[in-house]
Amino acid sequence: MSNYVFVIDAGKRPLDPVHPGQARRLLSLGLAAVFRRYPFTIILKESRAQQPVNEYVLKIDPGSKITGIALLLRQNVLWAAQLIHRGFQIKEKLLQRSQRRRNRRARKTRYRQARFLNRTSVKGSLPPSLAHRVLTTMTWVKRLMRYCPVTAIAQELVRFDTQALQNPEISGVEYQRGELFGYEVREYLLEKWGRKCAYCGKENTCLEVEHIQPKSKGGTDRLSNLTLACHQCNQKKGDRPIEDFLKKKADLLNKIRSLAIAPLRDAAAVNATRWALYSALKDTGLNVSAATGGRTKWNRIRLGLPKTHWLDAACVGAVDDLNVLTSKPLSIKARGQGGRQKAALNKYGYPVRHNPLRPIRGWFTGDVVSFQGKVGRLTPRTDGRFCITLPNKAQLNLKPGEVQFLKPVQRKDGYEYS
């Protein structure tokens, strides 16, 4: 079933979300109108006396690539979404920009001094790629607070304590060997090794924690010596060194060795932004609670729920039982507001063409439009041949004379929805 529909009164005050069937009934009877397409919100046409509303809890499962969001009324999951970040894209673009800037300074032109020493940063500020994750999450928290009477927020504050996992004695054995210790280690390994066997690549099977260098051969329990293997590969390897086990698979051996010592950048990104997001949530004035990722996974396994980001969000914190009333979460992909470059550059940093000025015939890239009953994301072009990307990724190319029949559904806001 789809998400519940948000409802606001004529004064734009949030009311209780309603079932999609009830929303269709209000629209068909003319008692309400569509206020916003994503997230789908209707507005009542007549003012009503102030009526009491229920108290809703917004739960957040922050991630480096995808953040899960769930809206709960007591034990009922009414609305869910998955927010796809673009932090790694921002990092790559900033790196390309600095490389091109360095290249321009090194060309056969007059010497221009580097400017990076002239800039100062505020103490405690985050890099743009990390700040993006906090800002986009807060954008949607504030947006949901406008359309739903949210009274409390629950956040998964820490996913992995990487320092404690690398050094089990950092705070004592009692801290490291708590009730949820196994869940923290396994969740870390699942994220790092892509939830599949490191040796055969098998997925959707029972995976076991395996020592790359056997303990009988001097191996340790450090995370750099742990991987995941299916039962067959684990038994087949036994206590043999990995060099002996994969002596005929040199490429796989090198891949496992490099991945074993590589840091988990996703976990590092989450750990770097967790307190900034927590502080931003506290500034909303709502009651904010926090929990660990180990507890989230413990709740999800105990309730028998599949592994998804939005269900992880619903399982954050204290959970006795869950009644999931939606099965189609809203997918929100951050696309940005567009660049300000006047020219497109090649890989050497030379301009190859000029970017057109926006808007083009009144349309921006990212506008959600309707054409002959089909709704999609618009890409305008200066020659009039507009393109509409449909939800199934199919593209609909328009002729210059067909642009006049476009109908706006929702103006661009920096996100792509499906």
| CATH class identity of the largest domain | Alpha Beta
Portion of residues in beta strands equals: 15-25%
The helical percent reads: 25-40%
pLDDT averaged residue by residue: 84
Classified in CATH, the superfamily of the largest domain is Ribonuclease H-like superfamily/Ribonuclease H
| CATH architectural type of the largest domain | 2-Layer Sandwich
Structural class designation: alpha/beta
Give the strand tally.
20
Structural domain tally: 4
Major beta-sheet overview: 8 strands, mixed
Spatial extent as radius of gyration: 25 Å
Question: Brief description of this entry?
Answer:
The protein has 418 residues and is α/β, with parallel strands linked by helices. The protein has helices at residues 20-28, 87-106, 128-147, 162-166, 173-176, 181-192, 231-237, 242-245, 250-261, 265-282, 293-303, 309-314, and strands at residues 6-8, 32-36, 41-44, 56-61, 66-73, 76-84, 150-158, 207-211, 226-230, 287-292, 323-324, 330-334, 343-345, 351-354, 368-371, 374-379, 387-389, 395-397, 407-410, 415-417.
Give the SSE map:
Layout: E1 6-8, H1 20-28, E2 32-36, E3 41-44, E4 56-61, E5 66-73, E6 76-84, H2 87-106, H3 128-147, E7 150-158, H4 162-166, H5 173-176, H6 181-192, E8 207-211, E9 226-230, H7 231-237, H8 242-245, H9 250-261, H10 265-282, E10 287-292, H11 293-303, H12 309-314, E11 323-324, E12 330-334, E13 343-345, E14 351-354, E15 368-371, E16 374-379, E17 387-389, E18 395-397, E19 407-410, E20 415-417
Parallel strand pairs: 1-3, 4-7, 6-11, 6-12, 7-10
Antiparallel strand pairs: 2-3, 4-5, 5-6, 8-9, 12-20, 13-14, 15-16, 15-19, 16-17, 17-18
Helix pairs in contact: 2-3, 3-10, 6-11
